[in-house]
Amino acid sequence: MKILLGALVALVSMAVVAGCGSTSEVAAAGPEAMRSLLGNWTLDSIGDKSFAMLVPQDVAAKKPTLDISADGKVSGFAGVNRLMSSLNMDALSKGEFALSPAATTMMAGPEYAMKLEQQYLTALGKVRNFKVEGSKLTLMDGTNQIMQFVRGG
To answer: What's the pTM value of the predicted model, to 2 decimals?
Structure first.
């Protein structure tokens, strides 16, 4: 129950996501930035921890995802629940990554999966900018890597 409450707190914090200044590493502003983000992304790491370090070794856990469509809609899997949001297109035009207040389904799951979901949503709420290099999407808090995804997966 505490983990579910923590996940709800993380969702509320996502409502406050706002962009900050971009760096030379951040994706270029405008239509090219949107094109680079389009598609299905699968979580590779949160901070310096790979997905394998975030779940028990004896569990075949499903990786969280982000699916970004051309109209700016964002959906995905957070560890237990589905995630729905949208990108702030004005922020994106400045090279920033800002999500609108997110909604999730409200199912419970195994403790490890609820913990993963809480970490995922909390990390997502800290994101301010991004870069795409090849098949990797790095979400950052300005200069530090918060999360990394791989295309498809």
So the answer is: 0.80
